[in-house]
Structure to design on (541 residues):
C-alpha cells in the first residue's frame, strides 16, 4: 500500500484515514451492494439466496413512480432555488467589497441552527391558523385561510428554504468573478439588459449554476424529513421509501437495492457534471 | 432599479430569518396553542429546565458533536496533509471515496452504516453515533483543509527538510500553524454538521442514547410543544455566540 521511502509519520497519517474510509465508508457500501442481491428471510434479517429479484421488483411501476416523483421534486426544488438565488447572488456580488463578507455570513448564520428546528418553525408560519394566513386575512388579500400544510406547495417551501444557501454561495462566487468591463463593453456596443444576461453573465457563470444545481439537487433527492413533516408523507419519495424498507418493513435487501439505484443515479449525475465542467473549462481556455 | 434590487435582497434576508424570529418570539408567548400574542412569559424556559429527557438529549447531542468533530478534525487534517504531500498506492481510491461521500445523499451513508453495525452486532448507541458522525465529517474537513493547502508554498517544506526537520516536526511546526484557520473552520463545520444531522442519526441511534434532532423529530410529529421553542432559542443564541467567537478568534490570528 505504501512506498518504502515514506517516514513513520507519513505511514501513520495515511494509515488512519485509509483504514477509516475503508472500514466505515467502503465496507458498509459493499455490504449494501451484496445485500441488494440477497433475499429477505423469514427468521433472519437476510437469507443468503442470491438473485436479481430485488432489482426486478424495483422495475414495478409503483416503485418507478416513487423514483420519478423524487426526481421531479428534487429537480423543481433545484430550479426554484436557481430562479430565486440568481438575482440575489448577482445583487450581492455587486455590493461594495467591504460589505460582502458580512452579507455572506448573514446568509450562512440561519443554517448554523438545526434544519429540523427551522422546518418546525415553518410549520408555525404556514399552518392553517399560522402567521401567513393571519397576515393575509388581515390585509384582506384572502377571505378564507389557505390550506398549505400537507400540500406539495408546503414541501417546496420547506425544501427551497432549507437548500437555498447551497445555491446562493456557488452562484455568488462565480458571478463575483465576472469582469465588469465585459458588461460595460457590451453595453457600449448596444446590448440591453437581457442580451447581456443571456450572452455574457449566464454563460460565464455556468460552472456556478451547475455546482449550485448539484448541491441542491443531490441532498433533495435523499431528503425525507421535510416532505414527511410538511407534506404529511402523502407522496412517497425515495428517502422515505428506503427508510421504510429498513425500519418498518425490515426488508433490508429490497431497501439496499433501492439505495444502490439511488447511488448509481447520483454517480451518473456527478459524471455528467464533471464532463460539463470540463467543457466549460476548455471553452474558457480556448 | 437600485431600490428594486435592494428590496429584493432585503426580502430574501427577511425570509431567511423569519422562521427563527418567529420561534424566538413564540418562546416568550404566554399562549400555548394560538398564534396570538398573549403576553410575555418565561414559563416555557422553566418547563424546559424541568424536562429532563429533553435536556439530556441536548447534552448528548453536544457530547457527540464535540467528540466527533474533534476526532474528525484530527483524522481529516492528517489525511488532507498526507494527500497533499505524499504519493502512495490507493491515493486515487481514497480521493474518489472522499468525493463520493461528500456528494452522496445522507440516507445512503445512514443505511450502509446501519448494515455494518448490524453485521458486527455492535449495539446502536453512543459508539455507533460517534463513528457515523466522524465518517460524515471527515470528508468535509479534508476538503476545507485541502483548499488552504492548495495555496501553500511547498518550498517551505523543502527548506525545513534541508535544515534537518523530521516529518512530524515539519507538520507540527511549519504546516499546522499555516493551515490553522482552515483546521478551525473544518472543526466548526463538523460541529454544526454533527449537531444538525437528522438523517444519518435516524438510522444509527438507539434507545440507550437519544440525541436532540431525533428527539425533536419525534416530538414534532406528535404535536407542537412550546418548550421546543425555548430550547431552539437557547441553541440559536448558543450557535451565534460560538460563531461570533470563532470569527473573532480567526481575525485575531490573522493579525
Amino acid at each position: 500500500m505504501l512506498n518504502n521511502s515514506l517516514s513513520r509519520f507519513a505511514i501513520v497519517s495515511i494509515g488512519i484515514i485509509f483504514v477509516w474510509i475503508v472500514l466505515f465508508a467502503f465496507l458498509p457500501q459493499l455490504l449494501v451492494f451484496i445485500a441488494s442481491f440477497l433475499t429477505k428471510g423469514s427468521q433472519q434479517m437476510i437469507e443468503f439466496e442470491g438473485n436479481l429479484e430485488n432489482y426486478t421488483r424495483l422495475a414495478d411501476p409503483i416503485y418507478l413512480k416513487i423514483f420519478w416523483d423524487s426526481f421531479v421534486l428534487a429537480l423543481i426544488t433545484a430550479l426554484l432555488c436557481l430562479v430565486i438565488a440568481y438575482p440575489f447572488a448577482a445583487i450581492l456580488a455587486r455590493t461594495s467589497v467591504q460589505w460582502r463578507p458580512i452579507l455572506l455570513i448573514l446568509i450562512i448564520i440561519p443554517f448554523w441552527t438545526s434544519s429540523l428546528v427551522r422546518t418546525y418553525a415553518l410549520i408555525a408560519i404556514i399552518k392553517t391558523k399560522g402567521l401567513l394566513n393571519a397576515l393575509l386575512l388581515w390585509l384582506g388579500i384572502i377571505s378564507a385561510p389557505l390550506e398549505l400544510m400537507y400540500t406539495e406547495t408546503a414541501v417546496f417551501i420547506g425544501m427551497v428554504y432549507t437548500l437555498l444557501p447551497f445555491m446562493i454561495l456557488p452562484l455568488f462566487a462565480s458571478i463575483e468573478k465576472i469582469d465588469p468591463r465585459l458588461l460595460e463593453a457590451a453595453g457600449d456596443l448596444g446590448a440591453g439588459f437581457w442580451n447581456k444576461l443571456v450572452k455574457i453573465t449566464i454563460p460565464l457563470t455556468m460552472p456556478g449554476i451547475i455546482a449550485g444545481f448539484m448541491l441542491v439537487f443531490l441532498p433533495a433527492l435523499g431528503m425525507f424529513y421535510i416532505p414527511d413533516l410538511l407534506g404529511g408523507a402523502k407522496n412517497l419519495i425515495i428517502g422515505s421509501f428506503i427508510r421504510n424498507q429498513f425500519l418498518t418493513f425490515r426488508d433490508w435487501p429490497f431497501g439496499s437495492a433501492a439505495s444502490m439505484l439511488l447511488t448509481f443515479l447520483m454517480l451518473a449525475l456527478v459524471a455528467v457534471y464533471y464532463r460539463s465542467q470540463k467543457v466549460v473549462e476548455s471553452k474558457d481556455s480556448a | 432599479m437600485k431600490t428594486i434590487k435592494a428590496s429584493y435582497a432585503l426580502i430574501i434576508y427577511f425570509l431567511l430569518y423569519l422562521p427563527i424570529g418567529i420561534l424566538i418570539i413564540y418562546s416568550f408567548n404566554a399562549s400555548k396553542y394560538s398564534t396570538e400574542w398573549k403576553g410575555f412569559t418565561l414559563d416555557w424556559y422553566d418547563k424546559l429546565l424541568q424536562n429532563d429527557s429533553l435536556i439530556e438529549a441536548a447534552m448528548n447531542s453536544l457530547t457527540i458533536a464535540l467528540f466527533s468533530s474533534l476526532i474528525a478534525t484530527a483524522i481529516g487534517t492528517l489525511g488532507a496533509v498526507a494527500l497533499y504531500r505524499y504519493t502512495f498506492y490507493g491515493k486515487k481510491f481514497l480521493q474518489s471515496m472522499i468525493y463520493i461521500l461528500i456528494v452522496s445523499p445522507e440516507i445512503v451513508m445512514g443505511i450502509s452504516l446501519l448494515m455494518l453495525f448490524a453485521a458486527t452486532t455492535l449495539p446502536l448507541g453512543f459508539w455507533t453515533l460517534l463513528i457515523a458522525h466522524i465518517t460524515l465529517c471527515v470528508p468535509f474537513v479534508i476538503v476545507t483543509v485541502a483548499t488552504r493547502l492548495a495555496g501553500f508554498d511547498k518550498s517551505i517544506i523543502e527548506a525545513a527538510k534541508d535544515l534537518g526537520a523530521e516529518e512530524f516536526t515539519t507538520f507540527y511546526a511549519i504546516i499546522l500553524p499555516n493551515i490553522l484557520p482552515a483546521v478551525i473552520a473544518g472543526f466548526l463545520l463538523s460541529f454544526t454538521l454533527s449537531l444538525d444531522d437528522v438523517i444519518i442519526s435516524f438510522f444509527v441511534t438507539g434507545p440507550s442514547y437519544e440525541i436532540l434532532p431525533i428527539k425533536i423529530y419525534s416530538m414534532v410529529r406528535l404535536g407542537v410543544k412550546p418548550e421546543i421553542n425555548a430550547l431552539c432559542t437557547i441553541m440559536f443564541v448558543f450557535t451565534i455566540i460560538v460563531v461570533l467567537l470563532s470569527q473573532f478568534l480567526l481575525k485575531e490570528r490573522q493579525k
Observations:
- Chain B touches chain A through 82 residues (CB under 8 Å).
- The two ends of chain B are 39 Å apart (CA to CA).
